[in-house]
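Readers of this paper often ask what the protein records in our data store actually look like. Such a record has a labelled line for the sequence and another for the backbone structure tokens. The tokens are whole numbers drawn from a learned vocabulary of local backbone shapes. We quote a single record here, exactly as it is kept in our systems:
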Amino acid sequence: MTDMQLATLILLGTFIIFVICKLPITFALVSSTMLTMFYLGIPVMAMLQQMAKAVNSFSLMAVPFFILAGEIMGEGGISERIVKFANVLVGRFRGGLAQANCIDSMFFGGISGSAVADVSSLGSIMIPIMVKEGYDDEFAVSITVASACQGVLIPPSHNMVIYSVAAGGVSVGRLFWGGYIPGIMIGVSLMVVSAIYSIKRQYPKGDPISLKEALAIIKDALVALFTAVIIMGGVATGKFTATESAAIACIYAFIVSLFYYKELKISKMPKILYSTVKTLALVFSLIAAAGAFGWMLAYLKVPALITEFFMSISDNRIVVLVLINVMLLALGCIMDMAPLILICTPILVPVVAQFGMGPVQFGIVLIMNLAIGLCTPPVGSALFVGCAIGKIPMEKVVKTMLPMFFAMIVVLMLVTFIPQLTTFLPDLVMGPAL
């Protein structure tokens, strides 16, 4: 065994051992990188330089603003208005609350960009209401958790910003526009599953809403939803970057929540800022650690080895892309989204490029795989939050979610093999990629 092969074994082997021992991902990445450098005789200063380089990116400045805007919106009464808005659209049909739950997540995803925030905010409202109206508790939790996947696909999404940096500067605007159709497709597929469940179990219809009341609800909700227009409009027209749009959206969210809805209290701001900084500390330390780990992967030529491995299995494009999806789905069951984006992106982007998949399409496919992982045991954070809100065992929820998993995987396969689903809107709005 050569020195490079042994170093690769040390890097990947120690990382897997540290993760199994439940060492935090950031420390696992740093420790395995440091041990490999010691073996190869590379100065530790090189690791520190790569960590600093990883977080020294203007694009990453959008992340704190998106997180802060989501925190402000969550405390500012936005969730209740989105629930009422969705109920106006579909509440009168059989199983209307379940359909409204899916639409809630579409709209909330366009504000927060977080699956866990979606479950925490909307779930605390929708799950008790659905159970009270006669829905089975495991179904109420299942549809809430599954529909939250849209939150990381429908922009804004700080995970797309992280992918952009990890992939070497892929256009954030293209990623944002590329996420719309797949995100909506997931929502529609879950609405179909909900309709089947509702007919089979005879879930109730919602009460009709008068035209006057409906117009008032729509007007009230559109003020909040205009946040997404600010972000996407600015990025699409080139008036400002994703970072600048995130900052403007943050200010808009603060003004709307404080002065228009009047539900955000200044006394809550320290709590909001503390939660934002806490999340940022986790995200940026992870990005720094993954930057050094990714540099070591490139130094050891691991992406080339992975490409050779897949090519040795098959040179058929369909077979290789299916295998990559299976691998990502499996990894999503045991690790969280952000570290997997940072670890898998530099390895797999060169692999999928060999089979004609562009970085924007792969970014959406990667994030969709890992979004499904947020709903799966044993470490699905969205699943944990939903079960905690619904006070129901995870096993019961997962069983009910099986048809929903199937629907999401069907959408995943369509997005994997039909590139136009992720490239049509970016090319239409921003012009063909150079």
About this structure: Residues 197 and 213 are 29 Å apart (CA to CA). The radius of gyration is 22 Å.
